[in-house]
Amino acid sequence: MPEIAVIMGSDSDMPRLADCFEILEKFEVPFETVISSAHRTPEWTKEWAKTARDRGVKVIIAAAGGAAHLPGVVAAYTTLPVLGVPMETSVMGGLDSVLSILQMPSGIPVAAMPVGKSGGANAALFAVAILASRGGAYADKLANFRDQQTQKVIERNVRLAEIGHREYLKELGGKK
Ligand code: RP5
After folding, report:
1. Is the per-residue pLDDT at 175 higher than 80?
2. Ligand 1 proximal residues by C-beta, below 6 Å
3. By alpha-carbon position, which residue is closest to atom 13 of ligand 1?
4. Are residues 79 and 53 in the same domain?
5. Strands (DSSP E) found in 24-152
């Protein structure tokens, strides 16, 4: 049974969720994915959201761009926590998506993730954190993830001290 569900307004959103899927796989969380729009397939979206809890889902990640009402609509049909991921758009870099997701009126909350590359990743990590809120295997995996992240920064500082900022910049250039 899926514990996390990822809904996207369009398949054009999918490439921007690559890090989200990767992290969910890394944490070995069973998850389901669906493409369904609040405006193009409203009835389907409604049915999907209303039945999510019965499918075992505990957290929903909803990604949309532009007039990004999908997370809010999904949240209207379920009491599961909904994490909204604003997609970058050609309009103001996605500020339209951010504001659509962020400014939910009182009563139907949606947690707004960052626009851009970190949005999908943080949505996945936040969803796992919700699953881990009472401890258990996911809490241990999250602690390991944080340790590894810290270790990477320490290693980078060791390298920086070794070669200095000029060489470090060159190495960075090679990686980009
Ligand atoms: C939204 O409209 C989707 O979430 C997507 O970000 C945006 C554009 O969709 P497409 O026209 O690319 O299908 O509903």
Report:
1. no
2. 9-10, 12-13, 37, 64-66, 87
3. 10
4. yes
5. 31-35, 59-64, 82-86, 111-112
Q: Which domain holds residue 98?
A: 4-133
Residue 33 has pLDDT above 90, yes or no: yes
CA 105 – ligand 1 centroid, Å = 23
Q: What's the average model confidence in pLDDT over 148-175?
A: 96
Name the more confident of 91 and 171: 171
**122 and 155 in a common domain:** no
Domain count, the chain: 2
Q: What percent of the chain has pLDDT over 90?
A: 96
Distance 172 CA to ligand 1 centre (A): 34
Let me know whether 25 and 70 are in one domain.
yes
**Token pair for 14:** 């999918």
Q: Is the dihedral of CA 55, 56, 59, 63 positive or negative?
A: negative
Which residue, chain included where needed, has tokens 């499918």? Answer: 55
The answer on 116 and 90 residing in a single domain is yes
